[in-house]
């Protein structure tokens, strides 16, 4: 008899455990305005769009245009678009929900209970969609057209592919274009709304020292103007090889700094895979060719404006050296009239004379009467921050002058050998370089060294640096972002161009892995920013 009673008791207990638990008196959809409507939207498969938040109500908006008002007094909808959501769980050995390790006072109900008879525990949204933890242990993830952060990263890692077909012909020099076709495939629409672009074009080599490297840089000239990746329509484009930059991102980093400073023009740059006649060439940076045009260097040549380059190679038609030893060239017009050449040379002579005169600090009689000081300060900040081997008034620096106007540092260019990617003192994140070294790398006066003898210039430099400093510090996050985007691409690139390959004269040995190269760039950049922050504010 005792055995039978034990069996009956066990059966009764089992029966009770399978019964649908009753909701508590204060739980369920009726007790929480907005909760039932969200459940119905979830069951209907509505696609989440966004949450419009205010102090009193959160409005959940769906792609079909429908909206649900959730009073803040009913329950919160938390924004985790920029922060990870906390752990939401039932504490072991207890029957209460906790959020981020803190008890909520919400009881964990049986999973057999309908979600309509339960209550919300934690509701939040992120970059992908809306989520609901429900007291009956249900976890609801709303349908969404958005990608999860992981899916979005995977999408962005599928960088566009550029296919160049020259019919098997090689590209052997920097003068003669080889005819062919360029096809650009961007199925993820990363850089524009165009999935594929194809056009006839010519291609030739480009660059000075970079043309001597095994991985060749190229210039592309379309037969007709076209917009690529949403950039202004033009015929001329560049493919930068970045052979000596194992992070594949220093030029892109510099252009981001250019955007922050607000230079007159910032060349757009995008990472791409390149194939030449079906043979993989590696990861390149596709960008706008530097030239005078409405969408690039926007000046009026017909009105007497000029586009000049500081370049010790002196490889343009019209070149000269200033009295302070700065190598200048006319980029456009290539062959100025004798009158225009004399006018520009005189302006430089007057500028440098004023820079060394007793009135050098006078706004009307000194150097400031001849240059756009703000553009020179921005140029100095970026070049010094990058510790650019070419940036000490020696190479790849571009100046414009409008008729009757001042000299303007118009845009930046050529930053592959920067941010520690050179040997000797350039590998050290501390110490001035642009300020103290002349084009021949002799310690002494140059334009910037001399201007810093003017207290007003130093004041403006310090004010500008301190204005930019918060954004400059945050650029480490941009480096991380680019490294994530390039992670898959760099693996493919370094199967063709070994991570161990190096340019002997750069004197910057490989660190052996892409991760270590990126870590060095971040470390150099961070230390350089902080050193400059102290040094500039002590001038």
**Cα-based radius of gyration, to the nearest Å:** 31 Å
Q: Helix/strand/pairing class, anyone?
A: alpha+beta
* Oligomer class: single chain
Number of contiguous helices: 10
**Straight-line distance between termini:** 99 Å
Secondary structure tally: strands: 23
For the largest beta-sheet, the strand count, sense and barrel status come to: 7 strands, mixed, barrel
Low-confidence stretches: 1-26
Helix content percent band: 25-40%
Task: Describe the protein.
- The chain is of the alpha+beta class and 539 residues long.
- It starts with a helix and ends with a helix.
- The radius of gyration is 31 Å and the shape is globular.
- Among the domains are: 28-146, no CATH class; 301-473, no CATH class.
- Residues 1-26 have low confidence and may be disordered.
- α3 (149-157) crosses α9 (475-496).
- The protein is built from ten helices and 23 strands.
- The longest helix is centred in the last third of the chain and has 25 residues, at 514-538.
- The strands form five sheets. The chain has a seven-stranded mixed β-barrel with strand order 12-13-14-15-16-18-17. Strands 20-21-19-22-23 form a five-stranded antiparallel beta sheet. A four-stranded mixed beta sheet has the order 3-2-1-11, covered by helices on one side.
Indicate the topology:
Blueprint: H1 2-18, H2 35-43, E1 47-53, E2 57-62, E3 67-71, E4 77-79, E5 88-90, E6 96-99, E7 102-107, E8 120-125, E9 130-134, E10 139-141, E11 143-144, H3 149-157, E12 161-165, E13 178-185, E14 196-205, E15 218-226, E16 234-240, H4 250-261, E17 269-276, E18 279-288, E19 306-310, E20 319-321, E21 327-332, H5 338-355, H6 373-386, E22 397-401, E23 407-411, H7 447-451, H8 455-473, H9 475-496, H10 514-538
